Amino acid sequence: MVLQTVDIVKNEIPLDEERVVISETSRAGLVLVDIINGFCTVGAGNLAPREPNTQLSEMINESVKLAHDFCDKKWPILAFIDSHHPDKLEHPYPPHCISGSDESNLVPALRWIEDEQNVKIIRKDCYDGYIGSIQEDGSNMFSDWVKLNNIQVVVVAGVCTDICVLDFVCSTLSARNHGLLEPLEDVVVYSKGCATFDFPVSVARNNKDLQAHPQELMHHVGLYMAKGRGAKIAREVTFKMV
Ligand SMILES: [Zn+2]
């Protein structure tokens, strides 16, 4: 049998996923990262998928389910939305998710959360939601949300697994370890609730300026890196009544 590259990588850096059970008495918050048209809706912009994509569709479905679970319990949800001033673009990416454009809106399946009392939206202009939450006065909107809601566990879903999700998870764990996020204890990344984009090496070879980004492999590596920093990787998130 000839192993595909992705199988070889998964053999070399196997990912230990777990079933995460969240007790109804624990204080949990859901963080949705960039589930917006500019990254998830076919044809919506420079960084949007060009054609329907199974990993992205599953990510949206799973994130919507989680959002319903949290809203039913009136538990806090924070949604990051990539949003750029037209004069301040984000190197090395082409223009995307300009403030006020439809690219910078939640995908249609998630727009309903904007009307929910338990949902906070943070617009950010950089990959990392933790850094993007820093305001001019030095306060941090994400950190304030954790403290205000007394959050002990954050469950993270969204895009891209190996970019904005990973950067946010790494910064959050680093800030927690530095004592900046009390009472936060655990960061859980829900694997099926995350996705990344596909740019196969066969296409990238024809363009010197662009790096290859094979979807399944980079998704796996993103989760693996998050676990290496101390995140729990969940293959399933369930809730336990007490
Ligand atoms: Zn951006």
Automatic annotation (TrEMBL):
**Example GO biological process:** pyridine nucleotide salvage
Instruction: Report the transmembrane regions from the record.
Output: none
Pfam families per the UniProt record, alphabetical: Isochorismatase (PF00857)
**Signal peptide boundaries:** none
**Where is the Isochorismatase-like domain positioned along the sequence?**
30-198
Picking any one GO molecular function of the record gives: nicotinamidase activity
**InterPro entries for this protein:** Isochorismatase-like_dom (IPR000868), Isochorismatase-like_sf (IPR036380), NIC1 (IPR044717)
Going by the entry's taxonomy, the superkingdom of the source organism is recorded as Eukaryota
Family that this chain belongs to: Belongs to the isochorismatase family.
| Name used for this protein in its record | Isochorismatase-like domain-containing protein
At the highest ranks, the source species' classification is: Eukaryota, Viridiplantae, Streptophyta, Embryophyta, Tracheophyta
